Structures are given as structure tokens and as C-alpha cells.
């Protein structure tokens, strides 16, 4: 059930990010779009940046970067959701996606 809730929240975040950059989105707005209470959001994610990092990792999980075919398939999935990835990478805030990725890949 928790995974379904996380995916629901992520889907709503993707919809919002089609129209706004991350720094202009508030957790309250995500909760309203997902029709959930703030404690539900914070049960699953630390903040909106944690949500975006989870979304990225979930999308990339099945990609084997040592396989050309797998990497190409992963890139094609990203291309289909280019607005989300562009906005995620353009964010230069303190908690930007690249901070999470650096921490994840560094560990």
C-alpha cells in the first residue's frame, strides 16, 4: 500500500512539474493535488526534493548502465518525460537532485 501511495504522490508531482519549476512548488500544493494530508506526504518523503530523488531513482532502477541496450531504453524512458527531468536537473537549490545523486553515487 505504501508503494502505491508513493507512486500516486509522484504522479501528481509530475503533473505539477509540467507547469512549474520545483522551487515554485510547495508541499501543500502536492498534497492538494494528491488529495492527501501533509502528514501522509511526510510519512513517505522528507521533502519535495526527496520525492524528486525517489522518482528519479525509481525510474533509473532497472537500467544497467554497462549495457548499451539497457542504457538506451532508460534514456528513451527519460526522453518521454523530458519536462520532469529538465526541471529536476535545472533546479539549483540547496536540496537539488544532483546533491542527492552525488550522495547516492558516492555511498
Strand-helix topology:
Elements: H1 2-17, H2 27-34, H3 38-44, H4 48-60, H5 68-80, H6 82-90, H7 97-106
What is the fold named in CATH at topology level?
Answer: Tetracycline Repressor, domain 2
**Large-scale geometry:** globular
CA-to-CA gap between the ends? Answer: 29 Å
**CATH classification class:** Mainly Alpha
CATH architecture: Orthogonal Bundle
Helix content: over 70%
Alpha-beta classification = mainly alpha
Classify the beta-strand content into a percent band: under 5%
H/E element sequence: HHHHHHH
Uncertain stretches of 5 or more adjacent residues: none
> How many strand elements?
0
Q: Total domains, how many?
A: 1
Give the biggest sheet: none
**Rg, Cα atoms, Å:** 14 Å
Look at the structure and give the mean pLDDT: 85
CATH H-level superfamily title = Tetracycline Repressor, domain 2
- Total helix count? 7
Structural commentary:
There is one protein chain. The chain is mainly α and 107 residues long. 71% of the residues lie in helices and 0% in strands. α1 (2-17) packs across α2. It has 7 helices and no strands. The chain has one domain (2-106): Tetracycline Repressor, domain 2, CATH 1.10.357. It has helices spanning 2-17, 27-34, 38-44, 48-60, 68-80, 82-90, 97-106.
